[in-house]
Amino acid sequence: MKNEPSPHPERLERLERLERLERLESADPPASLAPKTDTYDSPWKEAIEHHFPEFLLFYFPQVHALVDWQHAPVFLNQELQATARDAQSGKRYVDKLVRVMAQSGQALCLYIHLEIQGARQRIFPERMFVYHYRIFDRYRAPVVSLAVLADRSAAWQPRHFGYAYAGCSLRLDFPVAKLLDWQDRQAELQAHDNPFALVTLAHLLTQATRRNLPARLQAKWHLVQLLYRKGWTRQQVLDMLHVLDMLHV
Questions:
Q1: Which one, of 37, 43, 2, lies nearest residue 19 by Cα?
Q2: Band of the pLDDT at 117, cuts 50, 70, 90?
Q3: What pTM value is reported for the model?
Q4: Are 217 and 242 in contact (CB under 8 A)?
Q5: What dihedral angle (degrees, nearest 10) is formed by the CA atoms of 85, 174, 90, 196?
Q6: pLDDT confidence tier of residue 204, bands split at 50, 70 and 90
Q7: Which stretch of DSSP H or E encloses residue 90?
Q8: Are 64 and 86 in contact (CB under 8 A)?
Q9: Could you give the CA distance from residue 54 to residue 33 in angstroms, rounded to a whole number?
Q10: Sign of CA dihedral 52, 54, 59, 63
Q11: Residue whose C-alpha is closest to residue 237's, from 221, 217, 214, 218
Q12: Radius of gyration of the chain from Cα atoms?
């Protein structure tokens, strides 16, 4: 892929403004009349759907290896909404339910949870369990529950839910990819070809400069230069900046 010329530093803000204007112009109804949606999580939803194999390969390589990629994944968005009867509008997380075929020939349901909200959630492990059993109850097929955490607490590492009482016990363990765990591996992220490595790098840079606007702008500019060097198009760069803006509203 031929590299496009990098924009000058002073054009970075202009590019972001242009991208926002383009989105506003393409909207059908005025914002005041449009129904409220989870605008901040939609870029992540699109990224996962458009680059699902890369998503699994980067964050959950052991799950990626189980999937027979000759069979296209099927996203069960409407089915997940029906399963999650208590889903709230305005939530700060992304949920995906994907049906895939395993290498063994067994159909699997992959439940993917991306926690966007920066604060730790006390009920998060319980929510993972509730969704897990609801999906199993609906499909009677193996369910693989996966979580990506974008919070800022290194000490918060929820990986299971369970209880035991009067001889009865229950436990769900689920794989977790925590973006903060890549904090000291940013050089590795920069050299990685997987687009989600760059999403993770961008998230960490934006998170580290959340209280320093000039530093954040400079970090974004360095990221833009990196993306152009890797052959990203102007639209791909703008999409990345949009993901960052939506993640850190």
A1: 43
A2: low
A3: 0.75
A4: no
A5: -130
A6: confident
A7: none
A8: no
A9: 37
A10: positive
A11: 221
A12: 19
In 3D space, the residue among 200, 98, 106, 218 whose CA is nearest the CA of residue 148 turns out to be 200
Using DSSP, state whether 114 is helix, strand or coil: strand
Contacts of 135 (CB under 8 A, 6+ apart): 80, 83, 97, 109, 111, 143
Place of tokens 């970090």: 219
* DSSP single-letter state for residue 182: G
Q: Where exactly are the structural domains of the chain?
A: 61-183
CA pair distance 148, 116, nearest whole angstrom: 9
CA dihedral 128, 160, 111, 248 (to 10 degrees): 70
**DSSP 8-state secondary structure symbol assigned to residue 96:** E
Question: What's residue 216's pLDDT?
Answer: 79
- Give the C-alpha distances (Å, rounded to integers) separating 206 from 110, 147, 216, 231: 29, 21, 6, 22
Q: How far apart are the first and last CA of the chain?
A: 33
**pLDDT per residue as tens digits for the range 226-247:** 888 888 888 888 877 777 666 5
Find, among 123, 131, 31, 18, the residue nearest to 83 by Cα.
Answer: 131
